[in-house]
Amino acid sequence: MRPLVAAGRGVTIAGIGGCVPPSVVTNDDLAQVVETDDEWIRTRTGIRERRVADPETATSDLAEVAARRALEEAGVRPDQVDLIIVATVTPDMPFPSTACLLQDRLGAVRAAGFDLEAACSGFVYALAAGAQFIAAGLYDTVLVVGAETLSKILDWSDRRTCVLLGDGAGAAVLRPAPPGEGILGLYLGADGSGGDLLKQPAGGSRLPPSAETVARGLHFVQMNGREVFKFAVKTMGDAAQAALAQAGLGFDDVDLYVPHQANYRIIESSARRFDLPLERVVVNIDRYGNTSAASIPVALDEALSTGRIRAGQTVLLVAFGGGLTWGAAVVRWGYDRQAPRPLEMPGQRPRYGLPEWIRRQAAEGRARRDGRARLAAAAADPAASPAGAAPRPAGPGEPGALPGPPGRGAPPRAAGGGDAR
To answer: Phi/psi at 206 (nearest 5 deg)?
Structure first.
């Protein structure tokens, strides 16, 4: 297997920072707007609550706080940063990139910047990309950020997705390291044939924003949870084994396992496959939900603050996400955190209760779905349709249907097709 870190200098994580918004939405809160309850959510996902950004808070706002905290921990000034990579599926806007917005806000005047989109695998992908610039000698300091405001692309009337996701940001500062320290192994993979399992269908060039895409709810996250679960359990194990093999290590050498926080049952299943006791696994999905590209750096931030990560330990990072994508990294940790640090935004404390904007959007989602159901019923029974009723939107494959991407519909290949080796 070809190493993913270019031959040359070693690369280490010199600082970590995290940030979550103050609004806490519990399972009981969500039970007010969707047909669910705390037990149903906890037993299927392990989630008790999640953080949700206020309507005026953008992804770059969370990213800036996380980035400043990571830079402070690394002892690096913004004007010393050479490159900024932001992994996100919820950028502030299509362009300019969130990385460029962050560069300006930080005052990182020397830094190049770009966004990277690999969904929940985004942080590991960005870590791998940033490491290449340092290993090759092109740059000395790279700021890697995973940041999301997934609450902006959720249908709050759909319990299949709204109970799962949360908002947050995490950042890492990469610096040169002696060989044998820092990042020891990396592995990335992708399988585009499974793209339909987890997606946001509209808003791009295939389905540009229109009154119809909005009415049909195509700008919200859609997921086939059962198939994603099966994909995750297999690919997390395969990716972890590959990254460890590249580092010349085995699961017995892992001091701490930091998985993507998507579902507690997935985390538990992967740990069991690795024969790792849960005492060596970082789990915080119960308090933050799935924060996509932010989940691993936020978990690292908490693990450092609680003393679970120490200098010299071997840390295994594993993620999977939409695309489909997956990745793993093995890191020989280089420093101890001297004192715990908060994840909250500066000057903020946790704020409990269901935000009114979520209640309003859930009602709008129910009305939208009821309207589609009435149109479908009228089309099925024209005699019962009131005069002048609008025709229902065409379904996939029907005349007048919105176009879909070519080549879709086949089941995803077994993990391994399209692996980066």
So the answer is: -70, -45
Helices and strands, number each (H, E), in the chain = 12, 15
In tens, the pLDDT along 303-329 reads: 999 999 999 999 999 999 999 999 999
Q: Which residues pair with 290 in a beta bridge?
A: 165
Helix 264-274 to helix 225-247 angle, to the nearest 10 degrees?
A: 40
- Catalytic residue status for 120: yes
Provide CB contacts within 8 A for 248, sequence distance 6+: 184
DSSP three-state, residue 85:
strand
Catalytic residue from among 120, 162, 219, 263 = 120
Catalytic residue among 19, 100, 260, 263: 260
Q: Using DSSP bridges, classify how beta strands 222-223 and 256-259 pair: parallel, antiparallel or unpaired.
A: unpaired
The pair of structure tokens assigned to 284 is: 């915080």
Identified catalytic residue from 19, 27, 263, 290: 290
Residue with tokens 């849960």, as numbered in its chain: 278
User: What is the pTM assigned to this prediction?
Assistant: 0.89
Q: Interhelix angle for 122-135 vs 295-305, to 10°?
A: 80
Question: Is 219 annotated in the active site?
Answer: no
pLDDT tens digits along 380-417: 776 655 544 444 444 444 434 444 444 444 444 444 44
The full 3-state SS of 259-288, as one line of letters, equals ECCCCHHHHHHHHHHHCCCHHHECCCHHHH
